[in-house]
Design a protein that fits this description.
With 283 residues, this protein is of the alpha/beta class. It contains ten helices and eight strands. It has two domains: 202 residues, TIM Barrel (Alpha-Beta Barrel); 62 residues, DNA polymerase, domain 1, CATH 1.10.150.650. Strands 1, 2, 3, 4, 5, 6, 7 and 8 form an eight-stranded mixed β-sheet that branches. Helix 2 links the parallel strand 2 and strand 3. The chain is globular. The N and C termini lie close together (9 Å). The chain binds adenosine monophosphate, fe (iii) ion (2 copies) and zinc ion (ZN). The site of one fe (iii) ion (FE) has 4 residues, from loops.
């Protein structure tokens, strides 16, 4: 599996628009050597991804993007090579997914007062059992002709400032890192610099997360701002954290393209050596 390494992608098991099998075919078409499948709060796409990658030469890293929250701020945590059967992690991800469902229903009932949209529309745009999120509500708004595309729906309607928004339950990042480590996984903070340098995690808080087992920072990501990236590189140095780069591909749901940001092979080797909950699949 020589070739580019992309460690952050989504399938229809969460808010990507392609099934895990289609995602693997897209990864092969993009000539990736290694791809991680990291659906939000779910590992349900792993097996289909492995099956689709078989015989293609693609290496698949099993992962997940765990939703966490620190105060009012949503923080995403990539978790590689976790044990998918770990009871504590299963319980927590189930709790998050259930809360996402209740919360999506609440958002839609608020929207229904102002737009021609119903919960059935959202269900129609969500794969069975998928981790539901605002992207599925956006798809329903697009289908109803309210918004031209997902990005516009986020910008013009689903952003918290418009009042339809409702948060969902999520554990604190510290708890999440402890859960991931206890499940044999390797925790990496996803896109930690999307809101500019003034909103980057403090050195003190990061130190606490590193002590709990945080392994890396996803710095090469299109939504991290240049000033935030500069700060994050300094943190990686201070705390000896690995630096990853990834696309955060969502199929047609976002402009992000597979392989637009990549991770160094030496970093991947360190992640592979660190994770004990599951193993990479060599297709
Ligand atoms: P939620 O977790 O339900 O609050 O929704 C956040 C998710 O929506 C993130 O995982 C992103 O992948 C996705 N998202 C955020 N902004 C956009 C956007 N502008 N266009 C498409 N998807 C987005
Ligand atoms: Fe997403
Ligand atoms: Fe994310
Ligand atoms: Zn993501």
């Amino acid at each position: 599996m020589p070739g580019p390494i992309d460690l952050h992608t989504h399938s229809s098991v969460s808010d990507g628009t392609e099934t895990p099998a289609e995602l693997m075919r897209a990864a092969v078409a993009a000539r990736l050597g290694t791809v991680a499948i990291t659906d939000h709060d779910s590992t349900a796409g792993w097996q289909e991804a492995f099956d689709a990658a078989a015989g293609t030469g693609l290496r698949v890293i099993p992962g997940m993007e765990l939703s966490t929250r620190h105060g009012y701020k949503s923080v995403h945590l990539l978790a590689y090579l976790i044990d998918p059967d770990n009871a504590a992690l299963l319980e927590e991800t189930l709790r998050i997914r259930e809360s996402r469902l209740t919360r999506a229903e609440a958002i839609v009932s608020r929207l229904a007062a102002d737009f021609d949209i119903s919960w059935a529309d959202v269900v129609a745009h969500t794969a069975h059992g998928a981790t539901v999120g605002r992207p599925h509500i956006a798809d329903a708004l697009v289908a109803r002709g309210v918004s031209p595309d997902r990005s516009a729906a986020f910008r013009d309607i689903l952003h918290p400032k418009f009042g339809y928004y409702e948060p969902h339950y999520a554990p604190d990042p510290l708890t999440a890192i402890q859960l991931v480590r206890a499940a044999g996984g390797v925790p990496v903070l996803a896109h930690p610099g999307t809101r500019g340098v003034e909103n980057v995690i403090t050195e003190e808080h990061l130190g606490v997360l590193v002590d709990a087992g945080l392994f890396g920072l996803e710095i090469h990501h299109r939504e991290n701002t240049p000033d935030a990236m500069e700060r994050l590189f300094a943190y990686a140095d201070t705390f000896d954290l690995v630096v990853t780069g990834s696309s955060d591909y969502h199929g047609a749901g976002k402009p992000n393209r597979l392989g637009e940001n990549t991770t160094d092979p030496e970093v991947l080797e360190r992640i592979l050596a660190e994770g004990t909950g599951s193993t990479a699949f060599l297709g």
